[in-house]
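Retro notes (design track)

What went well: tokenization of the new backbones is finally stable.
What didn't: we kept losing track of which sequence belonged to which structure.
Fix going forward: every design gets posted as structure first, then sequence, in one message. First example under the new rule, 422 residues:
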């Protein structure tokens, strides 16, 4: 079945591959030593999956992993699965069927007459791929009915057309400053190695003023890597309210060398990011810190985790699970070890426990402890969580009123959507 194909695929999300690797017989199957994936059995409509050890997010992973027909994929080369003809007309089990696909252009969905649930009220849907400038142009021309955006500029442009309404959605998408603890040569970064220096630089930034001026409602302040709108947020976590006097005092206590220059890099190229970086630089200079800013260009993976020619990197993270948020701090992450050096006795036990826990309340408790740990390390200095916006042309479309993270699968009740015009 497709789980076996996924295990051998060269193009698969690490969260999925990590979960699937815990299926009984996964290693033997992947290495070609077994004809079948031992841990997966099928009895009529019942599929049983046996794991070698608990996987906390296995149910979440399976909820995001749609079933595909074995007979259409089993003869494909796993290394080239993403190029298979199947994706030009994929087969699923929802209220719509794909009838036409033009890669990097559009796909046509038509109501599936044999759908087991209620008959969809809209007969045909066109999914379009387009550049940002086309999104704005088409919205102004009333040519889009439903689309998600992260750009506040696009939201504002769309709302100039009174037909549109924007629905904000809180998602696991955060912005932060990554501290290069190991330094460029791996021997340790003496400039920012003292926790008090990193704490001082966090206190020195008026994040509320930045959020109000640059993001205008899209950004929410965070003091951990968990957005406050999520149930896992630890309300008792340490806060870093703007306090430049405290920042100056902590820098002095840490014997910070004010003659050295802090290197702040970023890889986003939009004007909003440029303005943000300039503002952070301004705030740090107000407490006496010299700052050099630059745009990171080239192979980002190599530059961020191997070359590491920065003291702080302005970065973003979007994740499906809490394991993704904290996995970089575990010593089994080569990339994280390159930048942070690791703290095996501190981070590993909690992250290991999270990885094996599926009970939601217990997971919340573990993530709460991880957030407490953040303040003791501040390897990632939290800045903001960012809202996603769902733009709806309400002059033409009536949705089911359910809006979630458009980067994941969720039940939009699309079969209940209605067109107000013919």
């Amino acid at each position: 079945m497709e789980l076996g194909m996924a295990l051998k695929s060269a193009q698969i999300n690490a969260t999925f591959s990590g979960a699937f690797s815990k299926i009984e017989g996964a290693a033997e199957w992947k290495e070609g030593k077994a004809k079948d994936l031992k841990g997966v059995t099928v009895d009529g409509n019942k599929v049983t999956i046996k794991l070698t050890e608990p996987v906390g997010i296995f149910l979440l992973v399976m909820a995001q992993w749609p079933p595909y027909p074995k007979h259409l994929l089993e003869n494909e080369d796993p290394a080239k699965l993403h190029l298979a003809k199947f994706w030009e007309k994929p087969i699923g089990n929802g209220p719509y069927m794909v009838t036409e696909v033009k890669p990097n252009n559009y796909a046509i969905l038509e109501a599936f007459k044999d759908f087991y649930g209620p008959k969809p009220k809209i007969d045909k849907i066109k999914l379009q791929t387009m550049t940002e400038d086309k999104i704005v142009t088409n919205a102004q021309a009333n040519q889009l009915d439903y689309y998600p955006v992260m750009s506040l500029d696009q939201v504002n442009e769309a709302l100039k057309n009174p037909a549109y309404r924007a629905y904000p959605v809180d998602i696991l998408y955060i912005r932060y400053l990554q501290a290069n603890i190991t330094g460029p040569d791996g021997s340790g970064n003496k400039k920012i190695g003292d926790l008090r220096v990193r704490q001082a630089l966090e206190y020195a930034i008026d994040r509320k003023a930045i959020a109000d001026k640059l993001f205008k409602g899209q950004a929410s302040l965070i003091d951990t890597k968990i957005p406050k709108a999520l149930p896992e947020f630890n309300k008792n976590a340490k806060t870093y309210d703007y306090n430049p006097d405290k920042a100056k005092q902590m820098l002095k206590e840490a014997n910070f060398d004010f003659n050295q220059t802090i290197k702040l890099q970023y890889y986003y190229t939009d004007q909003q990011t440029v303005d943000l970086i300039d503002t952070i630089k301004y705030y740090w200079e107000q407490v006496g810190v010299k700052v050099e800013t630059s745009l990171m260009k080239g192979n980002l993976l190599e530059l961020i985790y191997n070359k590491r020619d920065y003291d702080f990197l302005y970065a973003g993270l979007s994740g499906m699970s809490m394991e993704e948020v904290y996995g970089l701090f575990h010593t089994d992450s080569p990339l994280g070890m390159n930048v942070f050096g690791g703290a095996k006795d501190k981070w590993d036990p909690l992250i290991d426990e999270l990885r094996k826990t599926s009970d939601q309340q217990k997971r919340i408790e573990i993530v709460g402890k991880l957030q407490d740990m953040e303040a003791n390390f501040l390897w990632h200095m939290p800045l903001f969580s960012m809202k996603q916006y769902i733009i709806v042309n309400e002059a033409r479309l009536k949705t089911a009123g359910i809006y979630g993270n458009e980067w994941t699968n969720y039940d939009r009740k699309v079969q209940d959507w209605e067109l107000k015009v013919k």
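Added context from the reviewer: Residues 2-82 form one domain.
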